[in-house]
Fold this protein.
Amino acid sequence: MQLAAIGHAHITSMLFFLFFVIMTLCITYWAAKRTRTTEEFYSAGRSVTGFQNGLALAGDYMSAASFLGIAGLVSTKGYDGLIYSVGWLVGWPIMMFLISEPLRNLGKYTFADVVACRFKQRPIRAAAASGSLITILFYLIAQMVGAGTLVKFIFGVPYEAALVVVGVLMISYVLFGGMLATTWVQIIKAVLLLGGATILVLLTLAQFGFSYGELFGQAAKMYGDKFLEPGGLITSPLEAFSLGLALMFGTAGLPHILMRFYTVPDIKEARKSVFYATGFIGYFYILTVTIGFGAAALVTQKVIMGVDKGGNMAGPLLAEFLGGTPFLGFLAAVGFATILAVVAGLTLAGASALSQDLYVGVVRRGAADEKEEVKVSKIATIGLGVTAIFLGILFKGQNVAVMVGFAFAVAASANFPALLLSLTWRKFTTMGAVTSLYTGLVLAAGLIILGPAVWIDVIHKDDKAALEKQIKEFETGSKQKIEALEKQKAAGRNLMKIDAAIAGEKRLADAKRKELNAAMPKAIFPMNNPAVISMGVSFLTGIIVSLLLPEKEAQTRFDDEKLQYMQISE
Amino acid sequence: MTRKTNILNDADFKSLSGRKNTISLVLAVLELVLYFGFIALIAFNKPFLSAKFSGAITVGIPIAIGTILLSWVLTGVYMLWANKKYYILVKKVRDKARGQ
């Protein structure tokens, strides 16, 4: 198959992309006229309906990682890729059952409103804002790196230039249009993404007479039965459990998702929006699985991995195979729009943590006027946008999935325990919440850095590569020597001596390989995902500190808080 | 203060609060069992998931898709209960509390 369009700025991609940009900028202009107050800036004046917010939530959540990453994983790893798509969804019901009511009824702009409700405001706000910002920054890095790579791949624009385009557009949406513009950007993107993926799946199934049996049969024929069976992805049950925890409870700790609960008029609409969002996201993941298997069967793994080793281009390649360059152009533009929208949502959430929690809550002790709040929000937006561009350039070439995993681990370990305990446990205290937040944050971040994904593959990348090169060189050398000896043996001279020499050479090679492997950098912490430890310790710290240093006022306010979020008292 | 304790000790309020907690907890536990059950199957019973379901399709595929669908259904169950039943019960207790 010839891949003419990948890597070149194709006219259809450009047109679709320009169309999206113009449309979203028009919306931003429209939204700007309706965005004056803080409430309008951060929560669109609480005017979004449940259905619209459901689409926007789905838009916030379906990042490039899920669109490109999961289809890529399925196409290269088969069934194991499916495990991810299940994992990314299961956090939504948990969020709905455990925290949706209090979140919507107690908070105003950020989840810190909820945690701080019955505690001392300043220390909690500072801690919760730190948790939010770290989560958002890691998420942002992942999206920016993804954007740069995707755009370079499809449009042929340099990585840095792509980041600046993303940064400038994202700042304009948020700065001028606030939550209203960001919400509509998410809605449009979600519709485009769901529509594009649906068409892709229909075209794929049309190739197999609309029979999943045929599609899977073809995939099994090409790559063996193993392709449809769980394989090597989950080798250690503990590691799998830990990743599961991070995915499940991390969703309920993502600031940009939690923030969307405040854009709807009431709790009834909030519940509806989670239901719709879960439906859209689930549907989308089921589509990506079909896209992944379809790409493996039609485009073939060889071609997919030839373009990108990680398989990230499986979806776009399948689009080109089925619909030619126009369809590829469309999907590429949708992919770019996806990243743009997610980045805008993240920036808005970051700005709310900076301005509402840190500036208004901590610096001004809750006494800032409207004009000042809006001004600080706008400065924070620009600051975050520029930071995102800078970080994207700094982290060029890093693994996107690792960064997103990072964000989820921090969200599950720092933000979630304090949020859940503050709502469900009467004896929880200010000190307990603060220590739990910081412990989770430091532990999750620290253990990820000390784990194999960062310690070996990022920090000691060069050492590992150098050793691997040495091993390879040595092995080729010893192989050549053995081959030379084998030739002599074939010639029939000095048989005994040659056999001994071959054996000696092999022993030497084994010893050397062992020696070099022993010198390989080792991760200080053995797991890739530390949530089982960092989240557990965060909960324990919060509980122990609260039991050691009880806070009477916080206990008495527990009932008031409950009456308030059950909406029995105002 | 007395008004607040009155509400807190009110039988209707207590049963409402208890019901809400039970439903949230039961659904959350169901979801946890669903997902970690799936993970446990992958970790400890690969042969079961690898068995043929229909043609080349293995049992693992409908189970994964089913986990996604069932999760969605559970959020729907909660939404319907909360928006239809719980909502009315809350209103009743609230009106009662205000009437005092």
Summary: Chain A is about 80% helix and 0% strand.
